[in-house]
Amino acid sequence: MFHHKLLAVESELVAKAQSKVCFDRIPPECEGLLEYVEQEVEVKLAGKVPKDWKGWLSYRKNKKQALVVLRGRAFKDGMFGAIKAGADVPFGLDTVTEYQRGFDISPPQDLDHLLVNFGHNGKQFRIFLWYGENIAPYKLVFAADVEDDPHHELSNAVVEACIWILKRPKQMTLEHYLKTETPPAG
Q1: Distance CA 116, CA 107 (A)
Q2: Which among 79, 67, 76 has a CA at the least distance from the CA of 132?
Q3: pTM (2 decimals)?
Q4: What is the mean pLDDT of residues 113-139?
Q5: I want to staple 116 with a disulfide (CB 3.0 to 4.6 A). Which of 47, 67, 93, 169 is the partner?
């Protein structure tokens, strides 16, 4: 158990260091993984939706090199405007407007969210899936080498993390919630 916890902390530290590397452009394989997750989620921030829509949405961040996934709902854009998907917060229409204006939107503090981004370990690109909880720092959920074509594993990790978000009682941190969901080793 001790060894497992140390490995988890060490891998998270390495992932944070790798994901801080700035890229002029991400390679097509990385872009393909972001597009894959976007297609799986289906609805994009500021996209047209039915007036009673509520669900998951995604949007690009950091020069379109990262993807955020969070809960959203429908907002009417103006008196006669279209119904658009915004973040599931009272000021959700503001997230739509700012995104359409080209601003780099931060996930609202009121919503748990996921971030998909990339890093480089000196030899190859790696993809990371992070969990963000209120204003707490991101928690690493998934990491893989891009050249291993991790589409299926990434999709499963996104689904599992979305389930955590839906099931986690709001008064509990992710770490405490996962301890109640996972039987202790032993």
Answers
A1: 13
A2: 67
A3: 0.85
A4: 86
A5: 67
